[in-house]
Design goal:
This protein has about 500 residues and is mainly alpha-helical. It is built from 20 helices and three strands.
């Protein structure tokens, strides 16, 4: 009974931790979406204090004692056993780093991220470099502490915080397969699409009209508006907590496609959060499994389900009504033209605007650079040169002196998120593998999407992915859902079918 009491103490402790993390998530969303510029410094201090309080609770010696007392307990359910495993993982990760480092990194990343918003707009690498150097230096310290605690390579120790169990060698192997065929495939697709012209849609698209379309499509996908909302930020993201999910987009008044696709993407993230097991709220086992799993849910919705002729058939009448005031026979506004526009492949500078074929090359570039930054073979001062060299090699683009479209375009490194980037392309491959399984299980899924009916698709995802939380590890979850662990083949087959097969 004493051991069961220890486990109950762990659940109670982590429910309190979950409440604090809930507050932190909403405050972080507010900092990115609503906070006035003048609030930055004090908000950074407050967020740093909260980070330290959470860290102190995670590393409370009582947690270790309760864990030791609970080990080997036989009368726990499968979910409780998995929760105990995840609590141990959280405790080990937290005790690997000091509270002083947590606070120092939180302050440094807040300042660096806030400065990035100005520096990127001004193409100002000189201002950003020393701030980023501080963040990278602290991240190296974190990596060293984690590596010493878990025996991993420093970069692997960071990667493991976003994708538990994943190692850089496995990522490099998978990315090596992608590099083996993607550059040539990009050229083949660009050549093939020359005979399938897509006419740009020009005009003025107000932010409010774009918001209306985004909200309508969120409803179609199955987003629960009683437990979430849509706002605006510098960079689209999904934040908040499962019962209060905050997603954001950004608008360009000369185009609506970018905002719409960002909304569809973030809605996939949000519905994963909304579908997590309610009975395990506030416990580690009830959280999203990993960042690659999370990204698979956003890309499954955006790329696999919505960048399709079927979805465009459903969406086009809504676009006509909102932007044109009624139905249109203009071929520029046809669902086929919209489909071609949304599946156009081209070599571009910006990762978030990249198509699904070139996108992995952007991620591979970042993976190789950040691995070198943590390993010490690359310094922040030489980051722009390394970036340009790889952009030239992978995408044939010159970024010399163009920091805004080069190494300043993302906020991840400024926010200290090293080891995060690989999960984007791991997620893309996972999405393709999952959607192939969906199409086998639900033969009518594409005709349902054409009718705007995502009910069966969402139910499959709820049953096989969302409701599982962290009960299984990544390979176990993917094998249970698709019949095999992660492989490149379904992603390659998807690209081949969409872009190079005869219509």
């Amino acid at each position: 009974m004493q051991s069961m009491t220890a486990y109950e103490n762990l659940e109670k402790h982590f429910r309190r931790l979950g409440d604090l993390q809930h507050v932190g998530a909403i405050v972080s969303w507010d900092e990115a979406a609503m906070m006035p510029v003048g609030g930055g410094e004090s908000r950074g201090d407050a967020m740093a204090t909260l980070s330290v309080v959470v860290h102190e609770m995670l590393t409370d010696p009582c947690v270790g004692e309760w864990l030791d007392e609970s080990d080997g307990l036989n009368d726990l359910s499968a979910w409780q056993t998995a929760n105990l495993r995840e609590i141990r993982r959280s405790f080990d990760a937290a005790t690997a780093v000091t509270a002083d480092l947590v606070r120092a990194k939180s302050l440094a990343t807040a300042r660096c991220e806030q400065a990035w918003r100005v520096a990127r707009a001004a193409n100002d690498w000189a201002t950003m470099a020393p701030l980023l150097e501080t963040v990278i230096g602290l991240t190296r310290e974190e990596a060293a502490m984690r590596a010493a605690a878990n025996g991993l390579d420093p970069y692997d120790a960071l990667l493991d915080t976003y994708e538990p169990g994943m190692r850089a060698a496995r990522v490099a192997g998978v990315f090596g397969e992608l590099k083996g065929f993607l550059p040539e495939m990009v050229g083949e697709i660009i050549d093939a699409q020359k005979s399938l012209p897509a006419t740009p849609i020009t005009g003025e698209f107000s932010e409010e009209s774009q918001r209306q379309l985004g909200l309508a499509m969120m409803k179609t996908l199955g987003f629960d508006f009683d437990r979430g909302r849509l706002d605006v930020s510098h960079h689209p993201f999904c934040g908040g907590v499962p019962d209060d999910v905050r997603i954001t987009t950004r608008y360009r008044t000369d185009s609506f496609a970018e905002s719409l696709m960002a909304v569809l993407h973030e809605t996939g993230h949000a519905m994963y959060e909304q579908g997590l097991p309610v009975e395990w709220r506030g416990q580690p086992v009830g959280e999203a499994l990993s960042m690659a799993t999370h990204e698979s849910q956003s890309l499954l919705m955006e790329m696999q389900a919505c960048r399709t002729r079927e979805f465009m058939q459903h969406m086009t009448p809504s676009a006509h009504a909102i932007f044109l005031g009624g139905a249109s026979t203009d071929p520029v506004w046809s669902s086929e033209n919209l489909y071609r526009l949304c599946t156009r492949v081209e070599r571009g500078f910006i990762r978030v605007d990249a198509d699904e074929v070139t996108y992995p090359l952007h991620v591979i570039l970042r993976f190789e650079i950040e691995r070198a930054l943590i390993g010490g073979s690359l310094t922040v001062d030489h980051l722009p040169e390394a970036w340009d060299e790889k952009m030239q090699a992978y995408l044939g683009l010159d970024t010399q002196g163009n920091y805004a479209d080069g190494c300043l375009q993302d906020v991840h490194w400024q926010a200290g998120l090293i080891g995060y980037f690989p999960t984007y392309s791991l997620g893309a491959m996972t999405a393709a593998q999952l959607f192939a399984a969906v199409r086998r299980a639900l033969p009518d899924v594409m005709s349902n999407i054409a009718e705007g009916d995502f009910t069966a698709l969402l139910a499959w995802l709820r049953a096989n992915i969302h409701s599982q939380g962290r009960r299984l590890n990544f390979d176990e979850l993917l094998t249970a859902a698709t019949g095999q662990p992660l492989t490149v083949a379904p992603f390659r087959a998807h690209l081949q079918s969409r872009y190079l097969a005869s219509d």
